[in-house]
Design a protein that fits this description.
alpha+beta, Peroxisomal Thiolase, Chain A, domain 1, disordered C terminus
Length: about 375
């Protein structure tokens, strides 16, 4: 990575999940029971819940822990008992802001940044909407300046968290005094559908709720254990617009994920990576958005990555599921903790995420254990 002057980096990260934990085996058992009149779908649930790489997720909806008979989000319910989109959005409005604030406060403390330093706020979500939005609520509750530049990124899907990181880098590059707070909140489980269709059951198998936040700005000597941000790249993969579809329905949002998605990513992403990395100098660190087990498996194979390199993504998928836009910061935090525990030195990396379009977002990262050490190393070689 070329030397940046000043160094633009992720200075702090915070994550948060709701109180209710969905055990994968228990959820599979209850959902299978709800599908007792449809044995083909019940068998599909048992298989996909076991194979999707998830052991636990979190939800803001207590009813999702109820028995098959009492869960309003499972198949076999009358139309009147299924939560409407309006009811789901009311739940989103109640739950999203407190969860986002929890992650934001952690990121601010972790980044050693004063509230008064924050100049921009980017809020990210695709699982709910209301106005005045989450951006205005966060400004009020955190006590940020009312003049903070608020940028909501809404309904952009799983890639939006990394899109916000790339946008923040551009902001700080233009204004080195800027400090950008990103807050991603996704309550995916609110959109579980009471359906026996395979598409709906597949989505129900691995999406979870969570919030993540980070501070991006120019760093000084007081910041340690950070990710420097480098060159970025954004593209739409060809012939893939209908492979990932997310639309508003009467009973929540309706999701369609094509089984071709991992194959498309494996075919086109290696070429896109060449826009930000040298093919003969593959980075050591990989922060891959775990959109699903198949995506991680495919990229590991086509890029010849090791189990160690994909372990942060697999760990987040296993313990939290896919939390849409919020997930990539969970992966970066997992990767950072791992590097800190191993007392690792400066290390090259790349972060990438995917969303409807199919959109591919990529950015160079470089782990810096200490800024002082990094500056000494940069005199001898590029990170």
């Amino acid at each position: 990575m070329e030397q940046a002057d000043p160094i633009i980096a992720i200075l702090g990260i915070g994550t948060a999940v709701p109180d209710f934990r969905l055990d994968q085996a228990d959820t599979s058992r209850r959902l299978t029971e709800a599908l007792s009149d449809n044995p083909d779908s019940a068998r599909w649930v048992k298989r996909i819940f076991k194979q999707c790489g998830v052991e636990a997720r979190y939800t803001c909806e207590r009813n999702l822990l109820e028995s098959a008979e009492n869960c309003r989000y499972f198949a076999g319910k009358s139309e009147r008992s299924i939560p409407s989109t309006a009811e789901r959005m009311a739940k989103y409005k109640r739950e999203a802001v407190p969860l986002g604030l929890k992650a934001a406060r952690k990121a601010i403390v972790d980044g050693n940044v004063d509230m008064s330093e924050i100049t921009h706020l980017i809020t990210v979500s695709c699982t709910g909407q209301f106005l005045p939005g989450m951006d205005a609520a966060i400004v009020q509750h955190l006590g940020l300046a009312v003049t903070v530049n608020r940028i909501p990124l809404t309904f952009l899907g799983c890639a939006a968290g990394l899109k916000a990181v790339c946008l923040s880098r551009q902001i700080v590059s233009d204004n080195p005094l800027a400090k950008v707070l990103i807050v991603c909140v996704e309550l995916c489980t609110l959109h579980i559908q009471p359906s026996s269709k395979r598409e709906a059951l597949f989505g129900a198998s691995f999406f979870g709720d969570g919030a993540s936040a980070c501070i991006i700005g120019s760093t000084g000597l007081k910041h340690n254990g950070i990710f420097q941000l480098g060159k970025e790249h954004s593209t739409l993969l060809p012939d893939s617009a209908e492979e990932m579809v997310w639309e508003v329905g009467d009973k929540g949002f309706d999701l369609y994920l094509s089984p071709n998605i991992p194959k498309l990513i494996g075919r086109f992403v290696p070429e896109q990576l060449n826009c930000v990395i040298n093919e003969d100098q593959m980075p050591e660190l990989w922060a891959i958005h775990p959109g699903g087990k198949g995506i991680i498996d495919t990229l590991e194979e086509v890029l010849a990555l090791t189990d160690e390199q994909t372990s942060p993504s697999r760990s987040v998928l296993r313990n939290y599921g896919n939390m849409s836009s919020a997930t990539i910061l969970f992966v970066l935090d997992e990767l950072r903790q791992k590097l800190i525990s191993h007392c690792s030195g400066p290390t090259n990396g790349v972060a990438l995420a995917f969303g409807p379009g199919i959109t591919c977002e990529i950015i160079q990262i470089a782990y810096i254990p200490s800024v002082t050490f990094h500056k000494i190393m940069m005199d001898e070689a590029h990170v």
